Amino acid sequence: MATAIEFNNVSKQYRLGLVSTRTLSHDLQRWWTINILGKEDPYLKVGSINDRSKKADSEYVWALKNIDFKVEQGDVIGIIGRNGAGKSTLLKILSKVTGPTTGTIKARGRIGSLLEVGTGFHGEMTGRENIYLNGAILGMTKAEIARKLDEIVDFSGCERYIDTPVKRYSSGMTVRLGFAVAAFLEPEILVVDEVLAVGDAEFQKKAIGKMQDVSSTEGRTVLFVSHNMASIQQLCHHGILLKNGMVEMTGEVGDVVDYYLGGMKSVNDFNRSGNGAVRVRDFRLSSGTVTLGEDLEIELDLEAVREADMVDISFDITDELGKQIAHVSNYDDDYHIPHMSVGEKCTVRCRMRNVNFAPGCYNSSIWLGNPYTTYDMVHSCVRFRVTQNETFIHRITPYDRASKVVLQSAWE
Amino acid sequence: MNETQEWTTIIKPKDKLLAVDFKELWRYRDLYTLFVKRNIITQYKQTVLGPLWFVIQPVLTVIMYMVVFGGIAGIATDDIPQPLFYLSGTCMWHYFSDCLGRTSNTFVSNSGLFGKVYFPRLITPLATVTSNLLRFGIQLGLFVVVYVIYAIQGCTAHLTWYILLFPVLVVMLAGLALGFGILISSMTTKYRDLQILFSFVVSLWMYATPIVYPLSLVKGKMAAGMDLYTIMHLNPVTPVLETFKYGALGAGEFIGWQWLAYSFVFMVVLLAFGVVIFNKTQKSFMDTV
Question: What is the pTM of this model?
Answer without folding.
Answer: 0.71
